[in-house]
Design goal:
The structure holds 2 protein chains of 2 kinds.
Chain A (H helix, E strand, L loop, with lengths): L1 H16 L2 H14 L4 H25 L3 H44 L3 H18 L2 H12 L4 H8 L4 H6 L10 H15 L2 H13 L7 H31 L8 H47 L13 H19 L4 H27 L2 H4 L6 H27 L6
Helix pairs in contact in A: 1-6, 1-11, 2-9, 2-11, 2-12, 2-14, 3-9, 3-10, 3-11, 3-14, 3-16, 4-5, 4-10, 4-12, 4-13, 4-14, 5-13, 6-12, 7-11, 7-12, 9-14, 9-16, 10-12, 12-13, 14-16
Chain B lengths: L1 H10 L5 H15 L8 H26 L5 H24 L7 H23 L4 H22 L1
Helix pairs in contact in B: 3-4, 3-5, 3-6, 4-5, 5-6
The chains are: A mainly alpha, B mainly alpha.
Chain lengths: 407, 151
């Protein structure tokens, strides 16, 4: 029974790994640099596994989610800075996911985009309000597994497997090193996007993980995120095998779906679109809750996705307000794909504000007792903090220098 | 003037510097935007954009011609591509150009317009295999022509 539960969790994690940021950056990176940046995805996936394990352990041992610990450990002022940046990035990501959801619905139904934004918003509201959270997780996680069609498409496109293998070794064969660096930063930002750890650790607190469950959830995170990274590889390979040779720059979600249609026909297209639909819907729900978790934990309100909305009214009002704000952003006519690029780059800037406090708390004996980081977790954690600092500092200059990846 | 400037700088509080930083950011950002004079670099970038739209339209038309796509997907996606090409056409027709490249810029503008119209046909006839077949070669030729202008 336990193995069955783990298997279900892993399946949901695979399906839930990819969001609109991963979709956009992986396919665009493949279309621009072929398979050269596959190694960056590996670094990003290992990073999210390391820090998810850390904040899952903090949640299980101390019973505190990320922003609970941030407020206590770094103080109100620094914590407020982290909160504001996290909320801005969350809102941008949420708006991008909702826009992506509406575009997917439009590609499937042909209905007008503004109407579909409203339908997407209403659908999310109904699902979050009425559907039990275990089911939300399962429905969107398993639905997201349709994205595996991109793995089949990648194989059917007959990429040069030698070049694919070479892509896992860091190297750079380009006359545009700045653009290469921009995509590397974007891929890392997309893989390690902060809302994932807010959501993961808050879930751990709500599900009352204890120290005895640590092994189980460690395995779950490692296999789930690891196999989720496999989808990112597939997307980049599709970009490299199909779009690079034809000089196609993927600027629309439809282009990504075309990546499944060309090798697999209608069935590929439909599975691709349904997979994207579930993936971005699941990510929209995660970001919606993450925003509400962050504020509620920081201000000490009652919170919880397993509670009935009336049981945690301020938490409920927060996610409702976030949903309305995000709908307003999308309705203003902003392009969701462009918004995604900005959201990913700004999330890269905000990464240290999330990951440094997690690292500090995971090393604090008053919280963690005998479960503080071991030498390996500390060594890897510090290496990632350096990586995170570098990408945080370079993200905006690279965005400007490359005109958001256009040059 | 010089003394006055010194006094102004000395009297600045840290917060007074914010507009300057914002301005510098905006200038840098606008420098990379699609407005302003079309120079060789911008011409190359826009030509690659047009080639990309034509190539993607060609892939879509090929799938339609073999019955491998769906009505709504083709209708919506062809419209997206067509609108982007149309925007490029307008921008390239109106913007001032660097000396010596005006003819290529206007040629690219016309090409973008042609690609836009071809994609519009695909948008209007998303399941018509005959229309799709008739568009494959022109879109492929357009992509080649745009590639030449990019070089």
């Amino acid at each position: 029974m336990k193995i069955f539960k783990v298997a279900l969790g892993i399946l949901a994690a695979i399906g839930g790994f990819v969001d609109i940021g991963d979709l956009v950056f992986n396919v665009a990176a493949g279309a621009t640099f072929g398979y050269q940046l596959l190694w960056v995805v590996v670094i990003g996936v290992v990073g999210i596994i390391v820090y998810s394990e850390m904040c899952g352990r903090v949640a299980a041992v101390s019973g505190k989610a990320v922003f609970d610990a941030v407020r206590e450990r770094v103080g109100f002022k620094a914590g407020l800075g982290a909160l504001v940046s996290a909320q801005v990035v969350n809102l941008m990501t949420l708006a991008a996911e909702i826009g992506g959801l509406a575009i997917c619905l439009q590609l499937l139904s042909g209905l007008p985009y503004p109407l579909l934004i409203l339908i997407a918003g209403a659908g999310l509201l109904v699902v979050v309000w009425f559907v039990a959270f275990e089911w939300v997780e399962r429905i969107f996680g398993y639905g997201g597994l349709c994205m595996l069609v991109f793995a089949v498409a990648a194989v059917k496109l007959h990429p040069a497997w030698g070049a694919v293998g070479h892509g896992f070794v860091p190297h750079m064969e380009t006359q545009s090193p700045v653009l290469y660096a921009y995509f590397a930063v974007g891929l890392l930002g997309a893989a390690m996007t902060p809302y994932e750890v807010y959501f993961y650790s808050s879930g751990g607190v709500e599900e009352r993980w204890g120290p005895k469950d640590l092994g189980l959830y460690k395995v779950n995170a490692m296999i789930g995120y690891g196999l989720g990274g496999f989808l990112s590889f597939a997307l980049m390979i599709v970009g490299g095998a199909l779009f690079l040779g034809q000089g196609i720059e993927p600027e629309f979600l439809g282009t990504i779906a075309l990546g499944a249609e060309v090798p697999l026909g209608q069935i590929g297209l439909l599975l691709g679109l349904v997979g994207i639909l579930f993936a971005v819907s699941g990510a929209a729900i995660d970001t919606l809750f993450s925003g509400a978790y962050n504020l509620a934990q920081f201000l000490g309100w009652e919170w919880g996705r397993y509670r009935h909305p009336r049981g945690a009214p301020k938490f409920t009002v927060t996610w409702l307000v976030l949903l309305v704000l995000a709908l307003g952003v999308v309705m203003s006519g902003v392009d969701p794909v462009q918004l995604t690029e900005y959201a990913v780059i700004f999330s890269a800037v905000a990464l240290p504000l999330t990951y440094i406090p997690i690292f500090l708390v995971a090393n604090d004996r008053t919280y963690m007792r005998e479960y503080t980081n071991g030498p390996i977790a500390n060594a890897v954690g510090i290496v990632y903090l350096v990586v995170i600092m570098v990408i945080a500092v370079s993200a905006v200059p690279l965005m400007i220098l490359t005109n958001v990846g256009q040059n | 003037m010089g003394g006055k400037r010194v006094i102004l700088v000395r009297n600045r509080k840290p917060t007074d510097r914010v507009p300057g930083v914002v301005l510098a950011f905006l200038v840098l950002a606008l420098a990379g935007c699609n407005g302003g004079t079309v120079d060789r670099h911008a011409l190359k970038r826009d030509a690659e954009n047009v080639a990309s739209l034509a190539s993607e339209g060609g892939l879509l038309a090929d799938d339609v011609s073999r019955g491998r796509s769906t009505r709504y997907f083709v209708r919506v996606h062809a419209k997206e591509l067509s609108s982007k090409a149309s925007n490029l056409q307008d921008a390239l027709a109106e913007r001032p150009t660097s000396p010596g490249i005006t003819s290529d810029v206007r040629k690219l503008s016309k090409l973008a317009g042609k690609v836009s119209r071809e994609l519009e046909r695909l948008h209007l006839h998303p399941t018509d295999r005959g229309v799709a077949v008739s568009l494959k070669q022109p879109l492929s030729d357009d992509a080649d022509a745009a590639d030449k202008l990019a070089k």
